[in-house]
């Protein structure tokens, strides 16, 4: 699917992403986990070798197979659903990096599982993610992830495996002689746009399309994020708004796979920051169960825009990593229900739990990106009055 040169380039891009995402430097003998689905083993082996040569300690961990996941959620007792292996918390407290190689052999095998069981397991493990979030804020940890082609993904996207792999290669610049240099160039351009957005005294954002009329309160002490190195590929520019100021209607015209379920045509109506009406053309019951996962699951944790001039993704890929970065003719916006990104905080002192609540950073075990690819206009409503279009026709203005 990938040539040896492309696989080596993919590994180099992921290592660039891991370094770029980090506030501090990787140090000799730091521990970096390689979490991979079995089809991605060739890429995991190359990364293992490169990490050793960097004098780091690679920790390979194969992720559960579809059969294992199906067995777990079919037969686990309540105590097994919330079981945390001995040493897992200690590992999170000492881990310095993590590279995720996503290569699912099925994305529909959990379709008949009660979403509440999946949600219960996620809630029980949330504190492990919180440990890594705190270490990331301290500059002690970074992560990145990518997608590796499988027949399951290609089939759901309506492509051959070869065509699917070629789209991954193009989106990640793997056909370039120096893919890392290509990512560095995009990184520079996106950084310029983020600085422009940060200089605007924006109070609210108004999003308008054929099926969206949504107002989002940006919130105090916020900054825009994008192409941090955490996701490969990544073309989006996003922030975590003050969830309390969300009102109006949002519509996701792009389908979404989650926990084995396909949803499509999701329509959300917000009032006073929370979803009050949720509907979907397909998978409506699943959507409603997801937003009942915990109190924060009905609130917005992220708002994002992708500029079509950067993104090389122009087809549905049946995976959020790619679909949230869709370029196509109109770019995309997406919002995530659930947890916020605390690195969107631009102030001092450090963001503790009290300040997080005060500033409206949402907290949840859920983080679900829902994408709209319609032609749209996004206007910044400025503090003190005034209005400025910041995004239109798929491009930042």
Q: Would you write up a description of this structure?
A:
- With 397 residues, the protein is an alpha+beta fold.
- The chain folds into two domains: 4-180, Thermophilic metalloprotease-like, CATH 3.40.1830.10; 188-396, no CATH class.
- Helices cover 33% and strands 25% of the residues.
- The protein contains twelve helices and 18 strands.
- The protein has helices at 4-20, 41-53, 66-75, 78-81, 88-94, 115-137, 151-157, 161-171, 179-199, 284-290, 320-323, 353-359; strands spanning 31-36, 57-62, 97-102, 142-147, 202-209, 213-217, 236-239, 247-252, 256-258, 261-263, 266-271, 274-279, 300-306, 332-338, 367-372, 376-382, 387-392, 395-396.
- The strands form four sheets. It has an eight-stranded antiparallel β-sheet, with helices on one face.
- Helix 1 packs across helix 2 (41-53) and helix 5 (88-94) runs parallel beside helix 6.
- The two termini are 38 Å apart.
